[in-house]
Amino acid sequence: MDTLNIPTRTTQPRVVIIGGGFGGVKLAFALKNHDVQVVLLDRNNYHTFQPLLYQVATAGLEPDSIAYPLRKVFKGFRNVFFRMGEALRVHSERNVLETSIGDIEYDYLVIATGSKTNFFGMKELEDNAMGMKSVSEALNIRSLLLQSFEEATRTNDPKRRQELMTFVVVGGGPTGVETSGALAELKKHVLQKDYPELDLRLMRIYLLEAVPRLLNGMSDVAGRKAVDFLQAMGVNVLLGAQVEHYDGNTVQMQDGSAIASSTLIWAAGVAGADIPGLEDAVGRGRLKVDEYNRVAGFQNIFAIGDVAAMPDTPDVRYPNGHPMVAPVAMQQGTLLGKNILRWLQKQEPEPFRYFDKGSMATVGRNKAVVDIHNVRFQGWFAWVAWLGLHLIMLVGFRNKLIVTVNWVWNYLSYDRGTRLIVRPFRRKKEQL
Fold first, then answer.
1. What are the Cα distances from residue 297, in Å, to 276, 294, 329?
2. Distance separating alpha carbons of residues 19 and 302, to the nearest angstrom
3. 298 and 236 within one domain
4. Which end of the chain has the smaller Cβ count within 10 Å, N or C?
5. Which domain holds residue 291?
C-alpha cells in the first residue's frame, strides 16, 4: 500500500492512537492543541461506553445513548484527526502502521485497542455463545432474547419451549452479575406482560462461575451479598461450575451436569486485543509494558488500558498487571499524553501509579455493592452511587440526559421501552 499522509504530514511529531475507547480518548485530550499531530484510528466512528452494554443487551437502553461520535468528541481540537479504519499490522522497523485504509507513518504509536472476548480456545463455544464487547454484540443478544420468546409462543414442544426460556450467563464478574440481574428484572416486570400466553415461571436464569465466589476482584462481603441479591431475584447461582462445551442447545459442565438452553452469554474471560507485528511482546494475552507504558522491546510504541500489562514495576499490588477496568485506561492515557510532551521537551517522564478509587457493581433495582478501600456498603445507597458514577463517566450531555430519562422512566414504570428486533440474529452455523 502507498503511505497514507492524511492529514498531510507536517514538521510536528505524529502520534498515532489505535482505539477510541477510554484510554485513547483521554490520551487525545492530553495532547490537544499542543505542538504534535494526533491521528486516532478506530474501526467504528464512535466511542462506546462499555459498562452499560449489558443494558442495551437487556432492552434497557438504546445503543445510541451509550455511543458518542468520535468526530464530535474532538470538535475544536486543531491537532487531532480521526480516521475510520482497522489496524492490520505494525511495521516497527519502518515506523509504519498498516491499516485497511492505507499505511500511516508515526513517530509515536499507542495501542489502545482494549480487550476482546476470550473463549480459551473452545471453538464450539465461540461459535455458539454470545459475547458482549461491542454495540453490535449487545444488539445481537437483545435480538436473540426476544426471538427466543417469540419462538416459545409458537412451539408446541414443551422441551423446546423450556430450552428457549432458559438463559445461561457465564462469568461472575461485574458484567455477569449485572446481566443476570437485568434478566431477572425483565422476567419479573416486563416479559410476563408482553407474553401472557407463556407461563413465565418456566423461565430459568443461571449464573455460572468457575471459582467459589462472585466478584473476585472485590471484597468477600461484596461477593456474598451479590449472591444473596441474585438468589432473592430468582437467579440460580452456581459456583465452582466450569463450562466444558456448548453446542447452541446444551451447556455441558466439567462435573458432568448439563443445562438445556438456547442462549449462553459469555462474560467469563477477556484478552488484550493486540495488533500483529508485536507478537514478541505478548504475555498472558496482553502486551507487556514498562512503568511508562512502553511496549517491551520498543522505544516509541506504547500500550494503555486493557491491552497492556505492567507486571514488572515497583507497584506490588498488581503482579500480573492492572485490572482491566476503565479507570486504569483513563489514568494511563492522561499520563502518557503528559509524558510524550515531556519527552519532546527533553524532560524526565513520570512513571505510572494507579490510583484505585474503588470498585462497584449493580445487581438490580435498589441493589448494588460498593468497595472503596476499607469502606464497603450495599443496597440502595450503593445503587445510587453506581448510577451517579456512570452518569458522570458518560461522554456527551445528550447521552447523560437520555440515559437519565430512561432510568427514571424504567424505575417509575417498571418497564423497558426498547424491546425491538431491529436486526434479527442468526448464529454462524445458521448462516452457512
1. 15, 8, 21
2. 13
3. no
4. C
5. 14-43+85-117+271-344
Under a CB-based contact definition with an 8 Å cutoff, are residues 38 and 79 in contact?
yes
Return the C-alpha cell found at 317. 499490588
Q: Tally the residues of the chain.
A: 432
Identify the CATH number of the domain in which residue 275 sits.
3.50.50.60
Residue 42: CB atoms within 10 Å: 24
Which of 215, 210, 212 has its CA nearest to residue 177? 215
Three-state SS at 185: helix
For residue 261, the domain's CATH number is 3.50.50.100
Q: Which amino acid is at 223?
A: G
Strands (E), 7-165: 14-18, 37-42, 46-48, 67-69, 80-84, 87-91, 96-99, 102-105, 108-111, 115-117
- Amino acid identity of 405? V
Are 320 and 419 in the same domain? no
- Note the helical H segments in 46-134: 53-57, 70-73, 123-128
| Maximal CA-CA distance, the chain | 74
pLDDT in tens, the chain (432 residues): 455 567 888 889 999 999 999 999 999 999 999 999 999 999 999 999 999 999 999 999 999 999 999 999 999 999 999 999 999 999 999 999 999 999 999 999 999 999 999 898 899 999 999 999 999 999 999 999 999 999 999 999 999 999 999 999 999 999 999 999 999 999 999 999 999 999 999 999 999 999 999 999 899 999 999 999 999 999 999 999 999 999 999 999 999 999 999 999 999 988 898 899 999 999 888 999 999 999 999 999 999 999 999 986 666 678 778 899 999 999 999 999 999 999 999 999 999 999 999 999 999 999 999 999 889 999 999 999 999 999 999 999 999 999 999 999 999 998 887 888 988 998 765 554
CA distances from 14 to 98, 111, 331, 405 (A): 15, 14, 22, 41
d(CA 199, CA 162): 10
Is 197 among the residues known to form the active site? no
Q: How many Cα atoms within 13 Å fall on the side-chain side of residue 249?
A: 4
**Nearest CA among 354, 362, 417 for reference residue 384:** 362
Cβ-contact 247, 426 below 8 angstroms: no
Beta pairing class for 115-117 and 270-272: antiparallel
